Amino acid sequence: MHNDGLLVVLSGPSGSGKDTVLAELFKLDIGLVQSVSMTTRKPRDNEKDGVDYLFVDEDCFVSAIEEGKMLEYAKYGNNYYGTPKAPVDNWLNENKVVVLKIEVQGAGNIRKLYPDAVSIFLTPPNKQVLEERLRNRGSEDDEDVRRRLDIACSELERICEYDYVVVNDDLMDAVRDVKTIIFAEKLKVSRRNKILSEVNK
What we know:
Blueprint: E1 6-11, H1 18-27, E2 32-34, E3 38-39, E4 54-55, H2 58-66, E5 70-76, E6 79-84, H3 85-93, E7 97-101, H4 104-113, E8 118-123, H5 127-137, H6 142-156, E9 164-167, H7 171-186, H8 193-199
Parallel strand pairs: 1-7, 1-8, 2-7, 3-4, 8-9
Antiparallel strand pairs: 3-6, 5-6
Helix pairs in contact: 1-7, 5-6
């Protein structure tokens, strides 16, 4: 337990809308901070280095692993994804609500390291919608879409490992649901160390 800090893990298959939901959450200005993941994949046209991801080559990523600088990492498809450790621990010790957007493989590692983390699985309403979203991106060819759909099927089978599941059919409903989960978790007695110590003085 990191004082009254809260670690939120958000996972879901590619095309589930994780980035869009997070973007709307941050517009609400509810005191969230988001760790920027590191990846070896190439940036899409609308993505910025250091904002959407830390884009690095494979040698750099492997070095970070060897030096113990990664909180978790996983290979997803042909690319590595991972979370730098230092910023997360610093924010939690400052009692921040830290959001990690992490693939399913990495989320399992986070739950082992931070048992008090809150995990949310974001899913589209059905596989047809998921395929439509992937194709509408225009950034993947048919082979990539099929590969991502295969990966999505295996990820969907692991929903039961998460604390919560949010269906992203209507964007603002999904945003409201994630916000509600975060607010409820912040009010849990087990997370209110500071206020409890003041009350019991």
